Amino acid sequence: MDWTFLKHIDIDIQGRILFTNDTDYWQANSFRFIFQNVTTFFKLGGEDVFIYGGGTLDGNGQLWYDTYAADIYTLRPVLVGIDGLRDSILSDLVLRYSPQYYHFVANATNVVFNNIDIAGGSTSKNLAKNTDGWDTYRSKDVTIMNSVINNGDDCVSFKPNSTDILVQSLFCNGSHGISVGSLGQYVGEFDIVEDVYVANISMHNATDGARIKVWPNTPSAMSGDLQGGGGSGRVNNITYDGMVIDNVDYAIEITQCYGQKNLTLCQEYPSPLTISNIVFKDFTGKTSTKYQPQIGAFACSSDTVCGDITASTINVLSPNGTHEAYCLNMDQSTLDVTCTSTWLGFN
């Protein structure tokens, strides 16, 4: 369904909408985007659209998780696909078992998501991968608030050209954190993420709390269907204000070596993407045992691309009571952690 023509309309969703898991049908009939193999069941766009009602959208994801495990080139639809939506609100909705992201918010302006209940997971040995709560892309003035997310990838991810974003009062469980990026994936593209404010987040059982992830300036691969590196851009004016950390691998992670296991290669081919005016403040809690004694990683590709990065009132400890973080090409005087040059890995 192409609903990008909607204007001045209310949609009251009651009951449960279950999407078919006919994987062959959706390979041919889903809506394709140009970014990261994204496809969607439907496209929602237009202006002055209000969707609410307490009903459930169920992506029927289990067969997708199993199919993707057998063939990573299977195109898995996003549950809620947005393209060109303006001046609209989605609220009081339940989302379950998306085959891929729960929301892909593209080319949107002035859109609010409020009181969204997201949950899913796999009942087989095959994980529900890439089930981000929200991914914003080429969008501005987006608000995401007062929601609960139980998923298996980024709780929220700000993809290229996301600006003026507010995220507040979320409960995230099982995720990869509130993430800027990944950025710099495509050669010749200039990615921008700026003017983002993230506040009052409760992060549980996650790989990361606050995260900035950038591809290096050399070809790299997370997997056969996710490769990149060599792009540029800027990350500017990002604030993470208040986060509770509970069994999270890294409370804070900045990396410009995303998708690349060879740290030396990342230093030989540093990303040109700049990261500036970044604030992390008022973090509390305890990390997992994965990287202890470290609670975070602050790593830039060179000392010329990062500046004005501060971390204050970081009251987060590892299980053994330490407060260390890996620091590379950073002004350590502005970081409320005990910096070390020992690298234990990136997520």
TrEMBL record:
Reaction catalyzed: [(1->4)-alpha-D-galacturonosyl](n) + H2O = alpha-D-galacturonate + [(1->4)-alpha-D-galacturonosyl](n-1)
Gene Ontology MF term list: galacturan 1,4-alpha-galacturonidase activity; polygalacturonase activity
Gene Ontology BP annotations: cell wall organization; pectin catabolic process
EC numbers: 3.2.1.67
Annotated Gene Ontology cellular component terms: extracellular region
Active-site residues from the entry: H176
SUPFAM superfamilies: Pectin lyase-like (SSF51126)
Keyword Disulfide bond: yes
Keyword annotations: Cell wall biogenesis/degradation, Disulfide bond, Glycoprotein, Glycosidase, Hydrolase, Repeat, Secreted, Signal
Record localization: Secreted
Family to which the UniProt record says this protein belongs: Belongs to the glycosyl hydrolase 28 family.
Designated name of the protein: galacturonan 1,4-alpha-galacturonidase
Origin species: Phaeoacremonium minimum (strain UCR-PA7)
